[in-house]
Request: fold
Amino acid sequence: MPTLGQNQYGKAECRVVRITRNGATHHIKDLNVSVSLSGDMDEVHYSGSNANVLPTDTTKNTVYALAKEHGIESAESFGIHLARHFVTSQESISRARIRIEEYAWERIETAEADEAQHSFVRKGQETRLTQITYDGERWEVVSGLKDLTVLNSTDSEFWGYAKDKYTTLPEAYDRILATEVSARWRFDWADGERPMPDWDASYAQARVHLLRAFAETYSLSLQQTLYQMGSRIIDNQDEIDEVRLSLPNKHHFLVDLEPFGLKNDNEVYVAADRPYGLIEATVLRDGHEPRIPVDLPNL
Amino acid sequence: MPTLGQNQYGKAECRVVRITRNGATHHIKDLNVSVSLSGDMDEVHYSGSNANVLPTDTTKNTVYALAKEHGIESAESFGIHLARHFVTSQESISRARIRIEEYAWERIETAEADEAQHSFVRKGQETRLTQITYDGERWEVVSGLKDLTVLNSTDSEFWGYAKDKYTTLPEAYDRILATEVSARWRFDWADGERPMPDWDASYAQARVHLLRAFAETYSLSLQQTLYQMGSRIIDNQDEIDEVRLSLPNKHHFLVDLEPFGLKNDNEVYVAADRPYGLIEATVLRDGHEPRIPVDLPNL
Amino acid sequence: MPTLGQNQYGKAECRVVRITRNGATHHIKDLNVSVSLSGDMDEVHYSGSNANVLPTDTTKNTVYALAKEHGIESAESFGIHLARHFVTSQESISRARIRIEEYAWERIETAEADEAQHSFVRKGQETRLTQITYDGERWEVVSGLKDLTVLNSTDSEFWGYAKDKYTTLPEAYDRILATEVSARWRFDWADGERPMPDWDASYAQARVHLLRAFAETYSLSLQQTLYQMGSRIIDNQDEIDEVRLSLPNKHHFLVDLEPFGLKNDNEVYVAADRPYGLIEATVLRDGHEPRIPVDLPNL
Amino acid sequence: MPTLGQNQYGKAECRVVRITRNGATHHIKDLNVSVSLSGDMDEVHYSGSNANVLPTDTTKNTVYALAKEHGIESAESFGIHLARHFVTSQESISRARIRIEEYAWERIETAEADEAQHSFVRKGQETRLTQITYDGERWEVVSGLKDLTVLNSTDSEFWGYAKDKYTTLPEAYDRILATEVSARWRFDWADGERPMPDWDASYAQARVHLLRAFAETYSLSLQQTLYQMGSRIIDNQDEIDEVRLSLPNKHHFLVDLEPFGLKNDNEVYVAADRPYGLIEATVLRDGHEPRIPVDLPNL
Reply:
């Protein structure tokens, strides 16, 4: 009989919006929460007995109930509440993994400043991410972001590369460098007894480090830029031990305008879709082991 | 033999990025341009003779060449250059329609302010839109935006509606109202001899009017909010005669927490995907005829 | 005060699956239904009074209730039931437009033929479409399909076209021609007293005519192929008076392998994404007026 | 200084279409190929020296050149050619991972059977997948599929599950069970000296086993169905040692028609989008170690 290997289950993509009212001033948290539970689940796979299976519908209900009971201070703290709940309340569940996407909103400015403290426009830039894993003893928190698109219109070169018989690319001494940052960083916080990092402050810092390292690096290759981005976080944020980056090279090709008698002095580019270079790497605090998987999940 | 009706052709989704260098300070324009040409095109449909057909590949080349020759001051002015070029330079082409999507970027703030005037992060909020139509005599400019998501966490009610035997909805006296604004507005500018509006200033104003009207309207129905949003533009922007809005009602349902012994005092909502209410209407300057189609194109 | 122009509202994208059991043999219909209602709706826009507004939630309920009461014989007949219901049952509603997407399923073949007459796999090819409009007197039925991707690996040329100073395209005497068909066709059935066409048979015929006309036309331009596709329907299906086609030219470029000492004898192509040629036209039965809008809606 | 961990790079999503002509009968292969290379790449990350970096543009060229030189017999065999090429021809590259998506086409049937042997319509059902990894010694081939949507309209129950204070789900004794299959299976072929499996025959068999196991299992939980699907492959295909399945529970909820005086006898369902249950597990040949990652990559 075939063996059952790693397995997990739960409700994915529970969309929860939490409004907090501070007098006339409202605050909003907008999350997409996915729950994955593991434990003593052999029987349901082999025979269909659900005795150990808390329904995915219940895991969904729990997301909404805990949003009421605990509020949502940050994505990370909310995920910690959820993971602890499942592992400590269900004997058959020994491990919980909570993934959260967070969508940022900003206030709509109205004519009278005090008028519309309940009106928001979605920021629409990057999506903030976190993944909380708990096995009853150790915590692992991996946060990050995706869909943050950045571009340098100069200070990027690419030359001196290896060549073989299929190489036709001309060397470039002044090119556009653009990418859509997908990043994950792992916190050193693993012991629930220790005080937690300030999750929101840490996120804000990591985001700035990524942006500034991208902007401030004179780039000879996207790999070099990637390493600088990851290092900036490791060097400046003691609470983070590992960063994984997946950087598609969003090619902007200089258009050949010579057939039309025009000179293109790094002015007109075509933004290409596919194919794209894809540069991926892990940057680690010295002496630490990597734990973030090679393939970053989309959700 | 079947008759040929309205027809048009051209290259769609030409992605052009234009960098302008002002010393060390760079500026970026990022457009997605679609060209549709009409004219004396019966023969190519009936017999396949391409004698009157300027290739779509040429229309693509023209987008890039004109980006160099004229620069891109605004999406609207660039579309006007393109439409004029096609109609005046090709005898067989009597009408050109140029559609443009524009993606906004903002500067990355670096440690030293003067350091990275060539580094950008995509703003990622709404997409700006314009459509230029020219038949050799009259111009029609319809601009707008899509994917601007807004939410009021209070000041919205829905009650007193018609009921039939399929009605089960309870009346609501304090609900979330959220939508993803898709708007188009038509300029009164039609005579190429007249001075053009300030396209960028007009766009900025219309965007603010939409946001503020949404925020400042105490809403008894999304239709009422829609009319206020359109009216705000018509009342304040003389250069615009018609507004069409397509507003999906992005439902946020209050979660029933009573089964868990919890009271949900307008705090925890589920953000639903489908189905969604869809409210669409045109708001016109008095005495003007509508010209924007009922179905807003996606591109 | 600004004038209210055309307006409509309703619930969009109601996903309804209808199972019919014929003994152990089950049948499935899988639809995505969008309702748009118009009528005496000025007041809700001007003042927010909902007295004439049947809630969009009710229109959703009606979709599910009528799926039970009438069954779903075809997308068109179901849309006709819905449109008639809204216009005849609500005094304030004078016009209904029902749009339906239909997803096809086929049976999973099992070891014992009689075993699994309730198991289906989604066909996943084109999406069938229909739009029913009713104003209490006249019916308009426009059906069609989208996302049907076809390719001819030969029998396509493109040469003899107009050239200007921006033309660089070399002429082609044997190229791949590929497109993703989006088609709409309008039925002559408008009088509810007349017998309806056989909607399913008509759809099956139109689909075959589109595919065969694409395959059997030796093409000198995509416009010529388009006209043949539309004409094939008009010539063979008396119940249809108008066809509108939107055909993106899904470019397949021959890869230049000469730098590698290889000859590419129409063997290796790159399938490009953007930009793409876009060819759109209406083909009409002689003497009839066009009614399908120039821009085909996405839904 | 932060340490560089796992890293890889290459060109992603190279779209290659290969036409093979057998007289008037053409054959088509339509792939999306992504290359990831690893090796002696520290320097490019630390200093930006590209001396060891074969450009991603070259890896793209290689995809097209090898499509000419070797043809595309199957996605797997083509990926093996590519991986071997990179590892054996570049000293700095010690490991190659090739991911391929394959889109299936079927012939358009024309009036005269011999007429259009060069006309195709995209099948549009599942996407076939493979991933080839080669480190110069061992091969790993993981194939699979995604986006295969299946539905049983009966023979599914869900009851007897664990309950806590957040459980409200009623037990179900006859429900729709639907999912969108994402599957990966790992071949035992690792030694390049051994004869390869018949990749196409193996794929066809695995696809049938997944479909039939889904259809033929009377299901008490989706976990049980998943295990049956994986076991069917392991039990019947000696060349496969491990299967990983990711099965979203595409919920079809019975609509409550009682408020309208109607009885819903398992006839009318709403197909829900989010949230969805997500059931994931590995099924292994007894005595083998799992190697497919827990999170299946999207590409």
